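Bumping my old thread because nobody answered last time. Still need a sequence for this structure:
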């Protein structure tokens, strides 16, 4: 059984006991969260499709920890002009584990 759900503005294909890294959620570590925007549920070949979301369906998850992603270097340069800019970015992430999918 899997579902396609929107979490923090992005769509993920999730199944039970799967660990997922999502954009930082405003929830404490160890707390339970519920996502109601479920677009598709596949239950052993029986597909339920929403338009756009399935009413009454939800995905429950538990917040494991908050962390930062790998550093991404942004380097800009214009040749022969002496212009160079170096910038870095680390995305704030949350690791969650999917506890169940309810229809």
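Sorry it took so long. Here it is:
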């Amino acid at each position: 059984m899997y579902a396609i759900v929107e979490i923090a503005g992005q769509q993920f294909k999730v199944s039970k006991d799967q660990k997922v890294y999502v954009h930082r959620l405003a929830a404490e570590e160890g707390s339970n969260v519920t996502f109601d925007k479920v677009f598709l549920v596949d239950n052993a070949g029986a597909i339920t499709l929403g338009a756009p979301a399935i009413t009454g369906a939800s995905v429950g998850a538990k917040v494991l920890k908050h962390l930062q992603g790998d550093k991404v270097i942004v380097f800009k340069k214009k040749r022969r002009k002496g212009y160079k800019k170096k910038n870095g970015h680390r995305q704030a992430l949350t690791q969650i584990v999917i506890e169940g999918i309810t229809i």
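The chain has a mean pLDDT of 94. Let me know if any region looks off to you.
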